[in-house]
Design a protein that fits this description.
heterodimer, A: alpha/beta, Rossmann fold, six-stranded mixed beta sheet, B: alpha/beta, five-stranded antiparallel beta sheet, globular, binds adenosine-5'-triphosphate, binds magnesium ion
């Protein structure tokens, strides 16, 4: 089944078009990357899928159902999003525990205490962090709480917006390994926004490259091994990321 | 030898523990900074951001900062009045915070905020201020500065937010810039341009730069020296271009955890960090 189907998707903010004519399919169980220029509309695509960027035309289907032009609780049970700014997505006056417990309560999920404990362990945060407020955490710790909040609901689809770009490489490695394992175990689907092509190489099956609001190319992630991209912007991005350097293949 | 731009000795930042004691999240840090580029890397929670905030005296209670020496351009920062400290912040020392969009004022346009930052330091006429603001936005590779200057922080993308924050911090031409993960949301080519800009200010204007980043490649390329932190302490210092030859097991572990363009490993190696994670 198709997890996410976007057809001729146009998205605007207050009448100003930002994303134009995006068509792509993400299969169930697939890990799909969205990369491209800053400001090209990557976060906007994720926001449209979850109803947070409501001015869109064209079609969005999630697991075969048309998506709404507003946030939808039923959809939230199956699709969770990790936002680019962890600070903004966490309530400043709620502890980590409250954020996670409430998310479970809203969706009527029981066994909350054990679930909260387990998910915090999964993202590498021990008990000390459970009753902290966001301002009492480091940037990377906050980002892990945001990831935990999405995971705790056990959604089928995760929309991940730069989930590890604020994390140091060792925590990034843990989170990426965790996401990979969860996908294999539960057949999760990922739509992942990142500017880090090596992360795509590790995590994803296919990649869409965006430039100025359009998808200019969709390629298998294996293209990162040999630089086989069709579009000139894609090739430019690959080269700028050090893709053509022989050092890279030796793994530095 | 001339006095260093910034001199830090035995810096400690502590927070209360539940049992009534205190825990040091920065634990005896010492370094000198000249008009050069110093990189700080290290584990999440190792105290990198707190170090930056402590220098600017931005650690809020119940956090506490102590140091046997904390001097900037010969001035003792620990005893400076809050009023003098405010005048210093943003004018002579700037810090690009890790969460840029939430460090910006949500109800003021981006252009006005950058203009304010300039005005505090160099009062100019309206037209001249505006011209400087637009030029600064262009310098951080914002393509359509007029449009972006009129936007509110929630209307800009993640990468634009970072560049706006950098523009705001650079426009008063500080002598020291502390940049906390300043380019983590930028793709490599824009990142290179923004770091190139900071670099030219270090070389051209003699600015000192502390670059906090988890991106080992990036600090190796853009810094002169690197401090590797772990649990509030420096575990290794090295010349930036020798980072690849670092010897501390912790640093080696960090290097191995970086994904590669032609990745074939099914799993990335991780560190056993239980013993380290700060408070
Ligand atoms: N709420 C909003 N109102 C108006 N314009 C917006 C709003 N949110 C985003 N935009 C604009 O839409 C464009 C695309 O933004 P988006 O956040 O999708 O970019 P992005 O590809 O995620 O970039 P980055 O990699 O920098 O995060 C940008 O020009 C941005 O200024
Ligand atoms: N208000 C607070 N109370 C208690 N502990 C705190 C508080 N604020 C921060 N800490 C702790 O201080 C430690 C150092 O935090 P800091 O923000 O300096 O980490 P960092 O090295 O910048 O990490 P990251 O790479 O994740 O941003 C962390 O373990 C954090 O949880
Ligand atoms: Mg974005
Ligand atoms: Mg930090």
């Amino acid at each position: 089944m198709t997890a996410i189907a976007l057809r001729g998707l146009n998205i605007a903010y207050a009448g100003t078009p930002v994303v134009r004519d995006v068509t792509l399919d993400v299969a169930e169980g697939e890990s799909f990357a969205l990369v491209g220029e800053s400001g090209s509309g990557k976060s906007t695509v994720l926001k449209a899928i979850t109803g947070l960027a409501p001015e869109w035309t064209g079609s969005i289907e999630v697991l075969g159902r048309p998506a709404a032009h507003h946030p939808d609780r039923k959809l939230a049970r199956v699709v969770q999003m990790v936002f680019q700014d962890p600070y903004g997505s966490l309530h400043p006056r709620k502890t980590v525990d409250a954020v996670l417990t409430e998310a479970l309560a809203i969706h009527g999920i029981g066994d909350r205490d054990a679930r909260v404990e387990a998910v915090l362990r999964d993202v590498g945060l021990d008990r000390r962090f459970r009753f902290r407020y966001p301002h009492q955490l480091s940037g990377g710790q906050r980002q892990r709480v945001a990831i935990a909040r999405a995971l705790v609901l056990e959604p089928r689809i995760l929309l991940l917006d730069e989930p590890t770009s604020a994390l140091d490489v060792s925590v990034q490695a843990e989170i990426l390994n965790l996401l990979k394992r969860l996908r294999a175990e539960h057949r999760l689907t990922y739509l992942l926004v990142t500017h880090n092509l090596p992360v795509v190489s590790f995590m994803c099956d296919r990649v869409a490259i965006m430039n100025r609001g359009r998808v200019v190319e969709i390629a298998p992630a294996a293209a990162l091994h040999d630089g086989e991209f069709q579009d000139s912007y894609s090739r430019q991005l690959y080269a700028a990321s050090g893709g053509n350097s022989p050092m890279e293949s030796a793994g530095r | 030898m001339t006095a260093p731009l910034l001199s830090v000795r035995d810096l400690r930042v502590s927070f209360p523990r539940r049992d009534g004691g205190r825990i040091n999240v920065v634990d005896g840090l010492s370094f000198d900074l000249g008009r050069e580029r110093l990189g700080i890397v290290g584990e999440s929670g190792s105290g990198k951001s707190m170090t930056g905030r402590a220098i600017l005296r931005l650690v809020r209670p119940p956090g506490r900062v102590e140091a046997s020496r904390l001097a900037f351009e010969g001035e003792d920062l620990t005893t400076l009045s809050e009023r003098r400290m405010r005048a210093l912040r943003g004018a002579r020392i700037s810090m690009v915070m890790q969460d840029p969009r939430y460090s910006l004022n949500p109800v003021m346009t981006v252009g006005r905020q950058i203009a304010e930052a300039l005005r505090v330091h160099t009062p100019l006429g309206r037209a001249a201020t505006r011209a400087r603001v637009l030029q600064m936005l262009q310098d951080v590779r914002i393509n359509d500065p007029e449009r972006v200057a009129a936007m509110y922080p929630h209307e800009v993308s993640g990468g634009m937010g970072q560049r706006i924050m950098i523009a705001m911090m650079l426009i008063p031409r500080p002598s020291l810039l502390i940049a906390d993960e300043p380019t983590s949301a930028l793709d490599v080519s824009v990142q290179a341009q923004v770091l190139g800009l900071m670099d030219s200010l270090v070389r051209g204007n003699g600015m000192g730069l502390i670059l906090i980043s988890h991106d080992l490649d990036l600090v190796a390329r853009y810094c002169d020296r690197i401090l590797v932190m772990n649990a509030g302490r420096v575990v290794e210092t090295c010349e930036a271009r020798r980072l690849g030859e670092a010897t501390h097991p912790y640093t080696r572990g960090l290097l191995a955890a970086v994904p590669r363009m032609r990745e074939t490993r099914a799993e990335l190696p991780t560190l056993d960090r239980r013993a380290w994670e700060g408070t």
